[in-house]
Structures
1.
Amino acid sequence: MNTEHFSLKRFTQLLLRQRMLNMKTWLIAMISVAGFILFVAFLVQMTSPVPDVWMKTFEILGIISFVVMGLVFGSLAFSEMGTYSRSLQFVTLPASRFEKFFSAWLVTSVFYIIFAVAILFVTSLLMTLVSMGLYEGSFIVFNPFTEQFGNALLAFFIAHSFFFLGAVWFRKGAFFKTLLTLFVVNVITNVWMAILFFIIINPFKLLTGAGGAVFNFDGSIVSEQLLSWSVMGFFSVLALFMLLTAWVRFKEREV
């Protein structure tokens, strides 16, 4: 069933439905990963005489683990549409296409990040209590308000858009099929970039001077920061394009 207008009540019910369907799986997976991270952090601290050395390992392993897990969950956002019985139930839900699409995106991206940060915070709190009691460490907990985590968050939302598109596009095995697709596209892109570099860019003078200069064509220096912002802007726009493509494909599949 499809409705024409957005309803906050229906949207809230869809979010509750998503929570009921995913919460058990998420809890089991997240607690298992958190236990593994806690175990590794404890081993690092136990084998090092430096107090609080565990925190760096905890942050790196924790961020990578939960980002990868979030991509897996994102690729399963529309797993209901992969089987006939469940897809029929999903299609006949009393909600609009946009409400179904946006609720799935919101739960697997924003809500997932909030949940993951809470798990990381609690896990780091447990570890810091152990560190203070056994190794005379200081009270430090996971802090999501850092540049490192901000960059990881941006990378997650960009990558999530690709896997979210894969969830809509592929009926089964969306995560691995999306990985394979990204690998093939990356190889083709790198080949074409190499060809363009040697044909077009190579004749120009490349500069690697002081002050973080990268290259120029007319004597003006392009800074590393400007290049970094340009790359992030490009991938952000690409992520929006992937979400738009996912929306178009979602409407086609639900018909």
2.
Amino acid sequence: MPDFNHIERINAIITKYCLGEELNEREQVDFQEWVNSSATNLAFLKRLQDDEQMLRDLTVYTSWIRNNREVIRENVWAKYHSKQRVVKFSFFKIAFAASLLVVAGVLTLWMVVRQRSDKKSLPAASIIDTSQHGTTPGFKAKLTLSDGSTIELNKSSNGEVTKQGSIAVLNKDGSLVYNNTAGSNGKASGTGYNTLTTSGGETYSLTLSDGSQLSLNAGSSIRYPVVFDGTARRVEITGEVFFKVAHNASRPFIVTAGSTEVQVLGTTFNVNAYKDEDAIKTTLITGKVKILSHVSSHDESAILKPGQQAQVSDQKIKLIPDIDVDQVVAWQRGVFQFNNDNIKTIMRQIARWYNMNVEYQGEVTNHEFWGTISRDLSVSEVLTILANNGQLHFKIEGNKIIVMP
């Protein structure tokens, strides 16, 4: 169990430092010891000093606080104060106690392990890394043009990468934009299909010629026309893509993922169609969509409302009425977010993001994990967090992660 007195003191010192207040001699010593104790602590301090990053972190954290009061009450309240003080303990102090765990951990992480069996002390982290380096994610993508030629994209390189008809394809800080150079009154011209592909550990954004905005998660692809000139706007995807579709009542937007179609006019939704998942999952954020599952004998369909998810598996559609939307789109905020997920579900995400393979040895733990971890961390740091919060050990051999009890 964490030493909350020490955590509270460090939290107060860091707060003073970030506010520009002078630290006394003892505080300076404790502060330097904390900073020097791990690279993670130094990275966390830099994150605190990044105003834009802190706004993003606070958005994630306050949303979690708002949606998980009972979890906080159960896992922090009783641990942080004695039963005699619980009656006087406000919710905001409970939230503060949770923030202390964040400071003591890594970056914006607070992970709670819910054990199904009797509570036992957790083993110390065990990471054997024979690769001699911590794998970190990258940010690149590949654009394939209609003639089969490819262009490797780079987040740090801005400017025009190609032109197709009147459409200029621009690279802007990790976002590919299809811009009609004919002007607002000119008809866009351009033929053929392009394909944007991300590898493991890579994300990229895309603005289509109709103004629809998309984000591709790691190991994903989307095939789309340079210019939409038919009665419908059709795209094909693999992996996971977040859509914000430009409204056009005369031209529905249709997403194809395997045998599943998502039909919309203008809305925001997320499609997870990774081949290693047990279902194709479409989650509606705003608007209204129709899900179609094409089979040999008949088609199944369903209408989604905001906050619902359709899961297509074995050619059947299952509706989940109240899905955790924040968890579904957590990848867009640059985090892994777990909600009572087992280790195999978690490792599929880690394998895709860090472009690694996973092997299991021995009996897999039945622990459920809950919490948030930054995707900026190296794979070794993420595995250390998991090992510290569940009865797990890991071994890294080159591009392979071995999960052991």
3.
Amino acid sequence: MPLGAIAPTSQLDSYLEEVHPLAAERWRIDFLNWITHDDISFAQAASERFHKAILGGGPHVMKLLLHKNTVRAWVKATYHERITDVKKSLAGARSKINLSFDAWSSPNHLSLLGVVGHFIDSERKLKMALLALRPLDGHHGHEIADTVQPVIRTFEMRTSLAPFR
């Protein structure tokens, strides 16, 4: 479902759809790319300092100010839109799908596990896809396995090993 089709989550959604309907989707994508590629937190995107900088653009800019829940909703909607495409790519892989993991703690002290799939696609190109970024209860093997197993199920990957406990 395209982002333009989701229920508006803020004044910004309504404003973009009403005033700039053709540019609304492109703006959302550019904004989300900025957040994900530059590692901007939802709170930063909605911070008072950011708003103050934006407000320097004039009185109509007030309608563009974001709340962190709007950004979170946009990221979740985009993830759910694209998960089908990733599933199709993985299903069409010409190789086994190899997984790599990276565990770390975020600046707000949340332990996270990134799960990346590596495979040869249907056009024989090496591909990597971030499959998940999940909270992690600890850094022990069984905790990592408990976090990775639902990712394997979500992306409908078959395993050649015995299932995790």
4.
Amino acid sequence: MTIGEGNTLSNQKRNEYIWALKDINLEVGNGEILGIIGKNGAGKSTLLKILSKVTRPTTGQIKFRGRIASLLEVGTGFHPEMTGRENIYMNGSIIGMSKGEITGKFSDIVDFAGIAKYIDTPVKRYSSGMMVRLGFAIAAHLEPEILVVDEVLAVGDAEFQQKAVGKIQEVSRNNSRTILFVSHNLTAVKNLCSRTIVLEKGKMVFDGSVEEGIRSYLISNTRNEVPNIDELLKILPYDDILELKALRITQKNTAISDFAYSDQPIDIQIEYLIRERVSNFRLFIDLVDMEDTLILRSFHDENDKAPAILQPGMYCSNVQIPPNLLGPTSYEIRIQAGIYNQRFCLPPDKIRIRLRIENLEFNKAYPNDIFRQKIAPLLRWENKTI
């Protein structure tokens, strides 16, 4: 199928369009969990909206068998003035369920969503987390043949996300339902999906195995986005508490461009302005691998005996990744800060620095052996004859 939509731009030739999607040809079978990944603006959500018949394609056609249930945005398909109970029945009716079928599933939906106390409250009074839990519970329990799930699962808490992942696996495995799953969480894609497509600028650039798809996506990201740290800091949105002033990642006092040596420490220095008195402020770094798996996380105050109260002023925090820890592969350093248990001060995953580790004498006895693990700390072995 070929799917596209666009608007004419004033600074382009007449009849010239920007296509949200173009030349997408795709077939998904029964019981398949298809992961759809790509950068923001690649066309993922547009594709799901077209497949869900929320948006009509400009050209091309879609053929499917069975009922489709979609969870595209928080509150999609809910009437804000109606209660949770009324919205369950309305949503079930929309995807073709009878009242008796909905009633038979009603208790399971409410228990899964964890909103029994508020089931007769208008959903306009629900938090975003409550709405996404209810929306997912409806979509998953009312037995559509095709379930479409966008990134909205990220809104739920960790416990609910784990339940949702388990439910998706159960639905696909036991009921041979087709699931289309969009997420920036590559670990979830890897754990859930049986196949992956990668979208880039509205086109499908990969269709195949999950691991190869994730690798294709990450390599493309690295190739097209070599971040300039100073430019990243300039475009950060204003925050009432924090302003990042400088970020330096060095090895032997030399700025790291895109690679570092494994046998030398990596120094990270962060300079920042605290605008007003704040308690429970935490600055931290994440190190993730090419599959978006968290390798380590370290907080600026993790060695303190109690949370500090910061007064307005300039601060500098330094941390060092020790030598002989990281293996010969690619990682990403991410910088984040927030008020503990309240909010982040930086946009999620905005400060991301790609780092490739080189020149590790891994396994000297067998230098051509394949590197398999996530990290490669230099452990001390003692061998003797007894």
